[in-house]
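Q: Could you fold this chain for me?
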Amino acid sequence: MKTGALIRSSGSLTLTLTLTLTLSCTPQGDPGIGAGYVDDFERAALGKDYDKTGGNWRIDDGQLRVNGAKNHPLWLLRTLPREVRIELDVRSESPEGDIKVELFGDGASYAKSDRYEASGYVIIFGGWNNSKNVLARMDEHGIDRVIGPARKVVPGRTYHFRIERVGGTLTVWVDDEVLLEMADPEPLGGRGHDHFGFNNWQSDLWFDNLEVTPL
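A: Sure. Below is the predicted structure, expressed as C-alpha cells.
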C-alpha cells in the first residue's frame, strides 16, 4: 500500500488518525534477510519470525502444516530484497492439489471475504481442483494472470520450488522445470511489497526447508 506523505493539520486527532492508518498497512521495523534466511521447522512452535493472520498453521513432525486457512497467509517477518531466490519443499495430501505461496506482499493482508485480492504476487500450483497453474499480480482471478502449462499436483509427492526475481522477471521452477514466468514492466517492490508468505485455501499442505537468498 502506498502511503504517501503525511498532510499537516492543526488538529492532533487528524494527525493521530493518519499515523494509525499508515502504520496498520504493513509491519514496521521488520529486519531484512541479510546474507540469507533458512528455516527447517525443526521445533515445536511457529516462533517470532512469523505472523499468523488466521487459519490453523502449526508445526507438525518438523514441517509447517496447514489446511483450510481460506487465504489467511502465514507471513515471514523479514523484508525481501528486490532481486531474490526463494526455495522450499512442499507436498499436498489432497486430491485437489492447490499449493499456494505469495511474495512481495505487505506482510499483513488476509482475506476478509471469499474474494481475496493479494498485496503481492500469487503462485498457485494445481489450483481450481488441480486444473490450473497460475502466477498472478495481486488478483489471482485477474485477466492479466499468467497460466502455465498443464501439470497436476500428485498427492503425497514432495516438490521442490525455486522462485526467482531478476529485474522485472519472476520465474517459478518446480523440480527444476519452469512452471510459470511473468515479465512485469512495473515490478512490485518497496514498503508494502516486500514480504513472503505461505498461503492456503482448503488443501492439506506440508511445507519444509525454506531458504531465501538475495541475488
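A (continued): The helical segments are 12-23, 127-130.
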